[in-house]
Amino acid sequence: MHPPTSSVFDLAPRLAAKASPELIADDELHFEAMSAALRHTIDDLSLRLDDARRGPGGHGQQAMDRDMEVHRLTARLKTLERFGLDLCLGRMVSASHGEPVYVGRLGLQDAAGRRLLVDWRSPAAEPFFGATHANPMGLASRRRYHWTRGQITDYWDEVFENEALVIAGVGARAALDDQSRFIASLGASRSPHMRDVLATIAADQDAIIRAGSRGALVVDGGPGTGKTVVALHRTAYLLYSDPQLARNRGGVLFIGPHRAYLDYVSDVLPSLGEEGVRTCTLRDLVPEGPDAVLEPHAEVAQVKAARNYSMRSNPPCGSTSSRRPRPSRWRLRGATWCSAETSGLWPSTLPSQERLTTTPGIRRGRH
Fold it and tell me: What are the boundaries of each domain within the chain?
């Protein structure tokens, strides 16, 4: 955690106009409250983590619950200690009232329960990322911060409505800048790991990140269009919002094309507060791993390459059971074979026994 200083703002002389107390005084007060809340929260989490670790391990579900609690507390503590005040991404001001709402990587409250940071994945934070001049989503203005070693070295204000320049004095407290946070980030130097881009998520990217989890979502685009950024942030969003993944009832497996790619993006999810996501390459998904070879049998390769291969695949093995007695004989009708043959469910060159075991929809019964 970066130690607090007399001022969280460290603006260069060329940005002296942005250092005006009218522009940053409210932020200074807010960050002072955040600093006190962070110290209190870190101390509280440390005590709770020590108690959880010293507690009895238990057996069965009790042991699992204890391990999950230790993991949850550890992940949150790591994120708070890693970032400190720069958990805060920016703030937004509603057009209906002038009270700013601050958005962060995690949610944060003070000892009295006052909300100091809104988690970026929560519905309340959606306008911070999704607002545009065409659809301001109820916002009058938005401010994004640029952090360097725990201090704000620049910030950018956007005003969405002309009326906002006079409502509650927003115009007097907005540093309009023709260089947006996104454009400024393009000039950053490259590094061995993907840069932190959470504060620069665009409205169209955010719409994909927050899309519903029902069914498959395919994002198509050329190189450098932000597909990986969307995938990683969507992973963190689903872990936060999807009830199927809540309370450690499920997990996410992130699959990359090769190990160098996974190394490049390895720091993104931890920076979003998610430590438990597993990653692998396609080769890791097969028993042979990097020693996997091409299918030697041409007919089997033809089946595996078919678009409807999943229809032929046997169900996964496991502790499944059926109450129905297994039939001792199969009753197959000629129409069944002809229908399946003409529908292309299997190559006609496969032997009859292979067709029987790999094709669904075969009618079974006692002879």
Answer: 13-188, 207-290, 306-311+329-367
